[in-house]
User: Fold Lipopolysaccharide biosynthesis protein from Streptomyces melanogenes.
Amino acid sequence: MSESRRGWRPMRSHRGTRPLPRWWPLPVCALLGTVAGGVYGLARPAEYTATSYVVVTPTGKSDPATALGFAQAYGRVATQVAVIGDAQAWAGVPADTIRRNVQTATSPDAPMIAITGTSERPGEAADIANAVARALTVNGEHTEASTGVRLVQFSRAARPVDPSSASASLTALVGGCAGGLAGGLILLVRPKRREPAPVPAPALPAGTPYGGPR
Assistant:
C-alpha cells in the first residue's frame, strides 16, 4: 500500500517569471515620448517673432472695397522677389534669409496686411518685418496712380522680449501625448496573447478513491 502511494504523486504547477501586463506599451511609449519631446525642446534654439502692419487706404479715385481687394493682392506679393530684394538692404540680411523667415496675413474684413518676421535673434526678427513693410509701401507708391490706393505702414514691429517657440515643458507634454497615442495603437494592432490550456488531472480507475489505491 505504501508503494502504490509512493508511485502516485499529485502534479505540481511550476511557476516561472511573471509575464508583463498586456498594456505595458502604453506607459513605456508615453515615457519615451516625454523624454524625446523634452530633449527636443532643450536642444532647439529659441525663436522670436515680430509683426509689422501695413494698411491700404483708398485715394480720391477709389472706394473702400477697392482698397480691401488690393490689400489681398499686396499681401500675396509681399514675399515676392521684387519686394524682398529691396528689403534686404534695410534688414541687413540676405534675401534668402528674409524669404524663409517672413510671413504675411490679410483679413477679409479690413484692408490691412500683417507682416511677421522670425529669427533666433529678436532684433533681426523686428528688422525683417519692418524692412519688408517698408519695401512694400515703396512699391505701392510706384503704382499708386494706376491702382488708386496708398500703402501706409500702420505700426512698426517692436523688438520681441519673449520667444515665440514652444518651451521644453510644452514639447515634453506633446511628446508624452504622442507616445501614449502610439502605445494605444500598438495595443490595438498587436495580437491577443493566448492563455495556456489547463493540464488535466490524471485519470483514476472507476471506484478508486481520490487518495489513490489503498
